[in-house]
């Protein structure tokens, strides 16, 4: 798997490169600022871009903007955005083009190497990886349409929004895969979402719905 | 303006003119008392008690005049210096404070001219409508009764009954001029009072200095408290976790050969600890200067905040660009605090944040459909907003009748907006 990395701190850039290389990923380019990202993506056409939100020169949300505009130039370009903090607002912007291949994670998640590499792979293959923190913030809203859901359904929804497959959710919640799909059907019914077989479209629908 | 409005304003002004006459007359005994007690100052002890006492009365009277002027739309600030510490009535300190305040003497100088102006204008305000009223009511009555009458208004003396009835339109005209003009005459009186009752340039500066001293002290206190809180949070949070992290890794290092499984368990624990330390730091950073504020400015930060709160919040902004960082930060925390109050106390179902600017003033309005009855004296939240804004000469006003809705309006003078640094994307 070929990766383009955008991270301005040398320590983290090197660490991420080492981590990805150790897990059979090739870091074809590592840039340290926002404007350099798009040319690197166009040149290397990687399987996934791993991008820090805050990059020079503005040190604001340069990385996020670069990632969004890159997806405008190369539609469906898988992008995993990393940040020291997560905002549902940014998640909404990343998801706004309603195509897959989007990840948005706290930098902390890097420490859980296996899960992080899994998220990178998932995004590269067109899936999603939302940070549990984003999902948690969305679920915490009191007057949301989610009040109709049972506790178990909420748990399934949270797992689903993070980008997990039915099998993974079943393992995580110690329930059968059949039960998971039953819960998911209930969720779709209660939230008025059209059922869909495609994992990714399903996640996007849920997240877009939650963000609205 | 509605015709009913000017009649109501006019009648109110006429009534004000009526009350102004006895009030103005009150100035004269006050003046006499002041002068007398001032002279009694030569008698040790006596003047030191009496003059400040009379001054208190004079100030009460002047304050009343200021309040009345405010009613006519003429704002007059109180010019008095604040009393020195440990100043008790009858003491030397108190006496000196009263004597050395120029406002004392300006009040005194105002008493007599103020009385003359007050009585003159009061009489004028009353006389014109009364004369008009006479033309409308009394003259036809007297003609009907056959009483002798000589003339009215422009016609003097009456030669025919027809002439006499011309008093009706004249009276009506004079009455309406009198009623319509009364508020203007009241305003003239207020402007006259302002000449001597308003602070001089010096006194204004002195007031400004004492106000700045208070807000500066508040700001310094608040910042010191904030730094103490940050220090404590770091000390009890991230620092402790990092120490424990180092310890766990050290232990794992020792165990790695003898007990690889145990070492692995410790390393997993270390990873958890590092995650917790980061969460602590993130929480702390959010309280100091939210990253989204640095990245998106006030507009984006308030939108992000609205998304994170448990009730649906509509955000509407009309800001041309980024504010100066300190103002931006103060504005953000003020809005955040107001929203926190809303979600905590009001039982509102929805809330609304509006940000706009008029000239060089940033206006922030947070409203909700909750229970109302919010009281700035009741909690520290609203007081905190006031203090935060005061550091930038900002103000807060609150309207929260029982039953709601609650509207918090905050204003902050802001020198400039810099052009947006980030393109506004689909944040709607």
Radius of gyration of chain A: 17 Å
Give average pLDDT of chain B, whole number. Answer: 85
Q: Quick one: which chains have the greatest interface?
A: A-B, 29 and 29 residues
CATH topology of the largest domain in chain A: Rossmann fold
| Helix/strand class of chain B | alpha+beta
| CATH level 1 name of the largest domain in chain A | Alpha Beta
Order of neighbouring strands in the sheet with most strands of chain B: 1-3-4-6-5
Beta-strand residue percentage of chain B: 5-15%
CATH architecture of the largest domain in chain A: 3-Layer(aba) Sandwich
Strand fraction of chain A: 5-15%
Helix fraction of chain B by DSSP (H/I, runs of at least 4)? 55-70%
- N-to-C CA distance of chain A: 34 Å
Low-confidence runs of chain A: none
Query: H/E series of chain A, N to C?
Result: EHEHEHEHEHEHHHHH
Give helix and strand order of chain B, one letter per element, not per position. Answer: HHHHHHHHHHEEHEEHEEE
Annotation, overall tally of beta strands of chain B: 7
Q: What is the oligomeric state here?
A: heterodimer
| DSSP strand tally of chain A | 6
Count of helix runs of chain B: 12
So how many helices of chain A? 10
Please explain how this structure is put together.
The complex is a heterodimer of chains A (212) and B (428). Chain A is α/β, with parallel strands linked by helices. Chain A is built from ten helices and six strands, in the order E-H-E-H-E-H-E-H-E-H-E-H-H-H-H-H. A six-stranded parallel beta sheet of chain A has the order 2-1-3-4-5-6, sandwiched between helices. The model of chain A has no long low-confidence stretch (mean pLDDT 85). By secondary structure, chain B is of the alpha+beta class. Chain B has helices at 3-39, 46-71, 92-100, 102-145, 161-165, 167-197, 201-236, 238-255, 260-288, 291-308, 325-345, 380-390, and strands at residues 313-317, 321-323, 351-358, 361-368, 395-399, 406-413, 417-419. In chain B, helix 2 crosses helix 4 and helix 8 runs antiparallel to helix 9 (260-288). The radius of gyration of chain B is 34 Å and the shape is elongated. Mean pLDDT of chain B is 85; it is low at 421-428. Classes of the chains: A alpha/beta (212), B alpha+beta (428). Chain A binds chain B through residues 53-54, 58-61, 65, 68, 83-85, 87-90, 92-93, 96, 106-108, 111-112, 137, 140-143, 211, and chain B through 271, 274-275, 278-279, 282, 285-286, 291-292, 294-296, 300, 303-304, 307-312, 349, 421-423, 425-427.
């Amino acid at each position: 798997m070929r990766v383009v990395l955008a991270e301005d701190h040398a320590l983290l850039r090197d660490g991420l490169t080492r981590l990805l290389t150790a897990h059979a990923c090739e870091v074809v380019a590592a840039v340290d600022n926002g404007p350099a990202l798009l040319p690197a993506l166009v040149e290397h056409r990687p399987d996934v871009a791993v991008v820090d939100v805050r990059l020079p020169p503005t040190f604001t949300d340069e990385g996020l903007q670069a990632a969004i505009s890159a997806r405008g130039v190369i539609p469906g370009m898988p992008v995993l955005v990393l940040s020291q903090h997560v905002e549902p607002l940014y998640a909404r912007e990343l998801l706004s083009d309603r195509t897959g291949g989007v990840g948005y994670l706290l930098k902390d998640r890097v420490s859980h190497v296996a899960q992080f590499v899994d998220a990178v792979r998932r995004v590269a293959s067109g899936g999603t990886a939302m940070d549990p923190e984003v999902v948690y913030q969305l679920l915490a809203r009191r007057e949301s349409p989610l009040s109709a859901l049972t506790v178990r359904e909420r748990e399934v929804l949270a797992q689903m929004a993070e980008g997990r497959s039915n099998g993974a959710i079943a393992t995580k919640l110690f329930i059968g895969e059949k039960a998971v799909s039953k819960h998911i059907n209930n969720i779709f019914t209660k939230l008025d979402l059209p059922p869909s077989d495609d994992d990714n479209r399903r996640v996007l629908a849920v997240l877009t719905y939650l963000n609205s | 303006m509605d015709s009913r409005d000017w009649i109501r304003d006019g009648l109110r002004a006429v009534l004000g003119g009526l009350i102004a006459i006895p009030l103005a007359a009150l100035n004269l005994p006050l003046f006499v008392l002041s002068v007398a007690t001032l002279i009694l100052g030569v008698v040790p002890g006596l003047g030191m008690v009496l003059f400040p006492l009379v001054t208190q009365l004079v100030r009460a009277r002047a304050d009343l005049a200021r309040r009345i002027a405010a009613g006519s739309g003429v704002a007059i600030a109180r010019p008095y210096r604040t009393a020195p510490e440990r100043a008790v009535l009858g003491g030397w300190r108190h006496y000196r404070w009263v004597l050395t305040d120029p406002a004392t003497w300006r009040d005194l100088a105002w008493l007599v001219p103020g009385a003359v102006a007050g009585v003159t204008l009061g009489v004028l305000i009353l006389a014109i409508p009364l004369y008009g009223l006479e033309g409308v009511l009394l003259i036809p009555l007297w003609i009907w009764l056959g009483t002798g009458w000589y003339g009215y208004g422009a016609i003097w003396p009456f030669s025919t009954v027809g002439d006499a009835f011309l008093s009706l339109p004249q009276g009506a005209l004079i009455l309406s001029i009198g009623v319509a003009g009364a508020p203007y005459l009241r305003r003239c009186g207020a402007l006259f009072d302002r000449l001597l009752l308003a602070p001089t340039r010096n006194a204004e500066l002195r007031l400004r200095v004492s106000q700045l001293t208070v807000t500066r002290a508040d700001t310094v206190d608040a910042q010191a408290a904030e730094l103490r809180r940050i220090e404590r949070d770091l000390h009890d949070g991230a620092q402790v976790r990092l120490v424990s992290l180092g310890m766990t890794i050290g232990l794992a290092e020792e165990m790695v050969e003898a007990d690889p499984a145990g070492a692995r368990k410790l390393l997993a624990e270390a990873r958890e600890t590092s995650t917790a330390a980061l969460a602590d730091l993130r929480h702390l950073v959010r309280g100091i200067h939210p990253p989204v504020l640095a990245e998106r400015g006030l507009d984006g930060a308030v939108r992000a905040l609205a998304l994170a709160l448990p009730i649906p919040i509509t955000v509407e902004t009309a800001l041309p660009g980024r504010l100066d960082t300190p103002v931006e930060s103060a504005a953000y925390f003020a809005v955040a605090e107001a929203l926190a109050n809303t979600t905590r106390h009001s039982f509102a179902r929805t809330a609304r944040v509006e940000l706009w600017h008029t000239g060089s003033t940033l206006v922030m309005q947070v409203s909700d459909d909750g229970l109302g009855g919010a009281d700035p004296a009741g909690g520290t939240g609203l007081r905190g907003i006031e203090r935060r804004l005061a550091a930038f000469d900002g103000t807060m006003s609150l309207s929260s009748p029982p039953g709601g809705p609650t509207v918090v309006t905050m204003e902050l003078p802001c020198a400039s907006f810099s052009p947006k640094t980030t393109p506004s994307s689909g944040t709607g």
